[in-house]
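Example for tutorial group B:
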């Protein structure tokens, strides 16, 4: 039986950002939107190029759509959690210290996301066409409970600091090379 997942700790809705790519990944989008129907504890911001494609299939009332931004980092910085692809957005979420779930929208992302799960502890739910809506619901429920309970590992954030410092080092090297 389907549970209506209500937050019982801290009554404020959590800010959820979804950034998995183009609306052409329709399977992933529809599964995520269907999974969200089981929850009432999120304020959702959904980054997608053409939300009208999604409106034709599911009720998207109450979801704030962002059609384009050059500052995905700003969306993540204001979020409590996110659902991201197995591509670059997983790194953006980690660097911004936003807990996340990964759903691979392209098959080549699967091994990358599985490896990222091992080193970060953030769950890779699977490849979009091979996962069930209930798997997304369960993963989102688990992550929500961890966030509300303060159980996100310090190891996960230490890794994000290492990545951030690595990015800063690359920028330093580029600036040095531009001077010469």
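The residue assignment follows.
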């Amino acid at each position: 039986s389907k549970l209506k997942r209500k937050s019982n700790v801290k009554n404020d809705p959590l800010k959820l950002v979804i950034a998995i790519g183009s609306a052409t990944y329709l399977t992933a989008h529809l599964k995520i939107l269907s999974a969200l129907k089981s929850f009432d504890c999120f304020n959702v911001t959904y980054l997608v190029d053409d939300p009208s494609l999604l409106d034709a299939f599911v009720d998207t009332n109450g979801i704030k759509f962002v059609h384009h931004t050059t500052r995905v980092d700003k969306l993540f910085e204001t979020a409590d959690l996110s659902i991201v692809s197995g591509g670059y957005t997983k790194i953006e979420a980690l660097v911004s210290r936003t807990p996340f779930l990964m759903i691979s929208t392209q098959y080549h992302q699967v091994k990358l996301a599985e490896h990222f799960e091992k080193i970060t502890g953030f769950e890779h739910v699977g490849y979009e066409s091979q996962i069930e809506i209930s798997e997304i619901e369960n993963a989102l429920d688990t992550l929500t409970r961890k966030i509300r309970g303060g159980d996100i590992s310090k190891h996960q954030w230490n890794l994000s600091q290492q990545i951030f410092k690595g990015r800063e080092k690359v920028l330093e090297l580029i600036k040095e090379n531009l001077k010469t």
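The two ends are 66 Å apart (CA to CA). Compare this with the pattern of hydrophobic and polar residues in the output above.
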